[in-house]
Design goal:
Layout lengths: L1 H8 L4 H10 L8 H11 L1 H32 L2 H5 L1
């Protein structure tokens, strides 16, 4: 009886649970994000395209911020700019 109490009080071991899940076929499910990463690593052209898209998105965001700053400075009344 004392052993049962000690077992119940032990902290949950994630590694043990993870290894049990891997052995059980019902718990085996491919993570879509992991499979996407595998595809990207296998296809250098796709990886380059994704990097270029990321760069374009980054440049678009910077341009948007600059446009917002320009509009704000044009809309701000002259009196507020001096303060």
């Amino acid at each position: 009886e004392d052993e049962e109490v000690l077992i119940d009080r032990q902290p949950y071991n994630k590694e043990m649970s993870f290894s049990l899940d891997q052995e059980d076929p019902e718990h085996l499910q491919e993570d879509p994000e992991l499979s996407q990463i595998k595809v990207e690593q296998d296809d250098p052209e796709l990886l380059q395209i994704l990097e270029q898209e990321g760069l374009c998105i980054s440049l678009d965001e910077e341009l948007f911020v600059l446009k917002q700053e320009m509009v704000t400075s044009l809309v701000t009344p002259f009196e507020e700019r001096d303060h």
